[in-house]
# Entry
Amino acid sequence: MADSGEHANIGLLGCGTIGSGVFHLVGKNERLLTMAAGRPLRISRILVKQIDEPRPFPVDRSLLTTDATAVLQDPGIDVFIELIGGIEQARSFALDVLGRGKHLVTANKELIACHGRELMEEAARSGSQVRFEASVGGGIPLIRPLEESLGGDRVQKIMGIVNGTTNYILTRMSDEGSTYAEALAGAQELGFAEADPGADVEGADAASKLAILCSIAFNTGVTDTQVYREGIQGVRPEDLENAREMGYAIKLLAVAISEDDGISARVHPTMIPLEHPLASVSGNFNAIFVTGESVGDLMFYGQGAGSLPTATAVLGDVVNIVRNMDRPPTSRRSYWSRAANVKSIDDALTRFYMVLRVLDRPGVLAQIAGVFGDNQVSLESVVQKGFGDNAQIVMITHQVTERNFQEARKRLESLDVVLEIPSVIRVESE
Amino acid sequence: MADSGEHANIGLLGCGTIGSGVFHLVGKNERLLTMAAGRPLRISRILVKQIDEPRPFPVDRSLLTTDATAVLQDPGIDVFIELIGGIEQARSFALDVLGRGKHLVTANKELIACHGRELMEEAARSGSQVRFEASVGGGIPLIRPLEESLGGDRVQKIMGIVNGTTNYILTRMSDEGSTYAEALAGAQELGFAEADPGADVEGADAASKLAILCSIAFNTGVTDTQVYREGIQGVRPEDLENAREMGYAIKLLAVAISEDDGISARVHPTMIPLEHPLASVSGNFNAIFVTGESVGDLMFYGQGAGSLPTATAVLGDVVNIVRNMDRPPTSRRSYWSRAANVKSIDDALTRFYMVLRVLDRPGVLAQIAGVFGDNQVSLESVVQKGFGDNAQIVMITHQVTERNFQEARKRLESLDVVLEIPSVIRVESE
# Structure
């Protein structure tokens, strides 16, 4: 501790939606936080880009500064909270404060998914701590439960809804029968989607979060680029309707499985049975289903974003650090130091839902069945819908490797009787 | 640390279902546990009642002893795991080891719900720790997330399915249309209910768990005797059917609400809307819904009992203790030291479902409505079912205090036109 008396002093790096929420809660829940952390918390400096900016909660102007060096090198600060977002500047700030033995809390998923290993190593060198509960699942306690509570178990599988924007869009499409474009516009109007929704709808946000969860759950370093991803832009209202008829919901799932020969990590629209706990997670909520060899199935559910839920998670990390601040550091799990063996998507084993627009003539099904048979794809269900120009075949396969399925798909596309393959969606059964 | 080298030495008190599971996992997941705890764990002694007893997992016979003193006073043991159950002997063992500065992990909900405060005080005196994650929700990480992750938030409400036996029975009644007695017999056959199911079906088990959750979430000492409880024995297949028709499921819920004038804590069969995440928690699973002022709604879901899930939670506590074992203790939240202000059930505000068997004659409804009006009970829905001797009125009230409702109920029972009130069940809407 610096000469700051009994308080733990906090430096806020960034003060937008989450930062001003943190400031608000530190004032409002002072007594509770003191009890939880073992001493009072004080926000002593706040680094911002501009002094005057709209913020959801008012902050003490006298703490604001645009002088990064003054904040980063303030010897009185014990814990830094990094909320500036982005990668490069956040990384340089983080390495700077960790290098001087200060503790770091961040909500920055890209930073951790890209550079988690580097930050953990720097922290280990200087005896400081890095915590990032808010980087996945917003306010949902997840990282620490995986790290400690499941420390005695072998996590086998993670399956989660970790992006609220896409879940909101898919829920709306499902409830209202609207198209992707309509639902996206509605989400943007209500502030549930950004003006540029790319990182959300293309699955990049979910991929970063899955990389972090994999690293912790499987105790090995996974980066976001190792996660296969597909977005939700291709999901059609008809697919949601077909899914419901067959007893499924469609969700953008982040799925990771630990197998003997490596880790399978992927983000894609997925059909899951309506009775699965994840199927009824609607709107902008997040939920993460974890299967441990001994503990069985667990699920963590809550708000995956938002100022105060995320600020609560940030403060949970601060509490954890401050409780243990005066003690020498313990050895941390070294999950970032081993690079993970992440398998190619080609080796992933899943079931597939597939829609084919076909010519309505005898022998078509036989040709299609032949292609599947040649590629070791067996079918669980096949339904013909519509007639004439609208003839469609809706099918679900049994488990098959991605490689074999994509080979069959390519062959099908080249058949004269197949006009179009408007939809392919993976199916998870448990 | 004693002179035991680098290992953390564990003394197991009791070695039945959970204890032998702990022994099994310590051997099987040695590498993972060492990584999580920062050093290897070793079970060095096991206190049992009888050396030869059937156990779900084999244990090393050379560690077993029936000599309590030899185990309790073994100076080489760092952490004791109490799994003998019951209250008096467990309490005396716990106080004994805490008094000598040893750490304690327990899965014993009655012990914590009755004597948590005493154990925490003894631990504070001697600088040791008490942990009890496995006492509520089996393998679900819950206690530590509430303590630390939500340390910066004000928990407003807890609503949980915390007893697997009753949830299994109610799920079976609902799925099969069977009676309580039939479903209980089925549960007993499959080992989901004890031969003497009293503590489960009467709500005592859930009340102990709710007392523990209240103490942590509301930061104040609540004991099991302060929790109002009603069991599930009176729930009829017809009630489950009526509930479903009206869009509800019936669950045994543990409900606690923190209000300005005190805490409301109660366990009773409850109707909740089918779209509530708790409604689809089926079989012997547990789920706890927590509402924080800032974080919003969270839910924790998983296996509430069973050898390996519970053993995993016990080991999570051991990991947490061993990670911090060489450090001086921090001040812990003092939630046990203030006695809670728990309100009388008379002041609880809920909605009620009520079934009246009545004479099928004109003016009956007017008389009943008059009684409700006199007691400030207003009705949300009233449906008449059946005719003649089978005439029944099924109603749901708006929110009303328990006091007013019970007064109205008493008055109704005294009316000549009311033959019987076969069912009264509370209704939660959110």
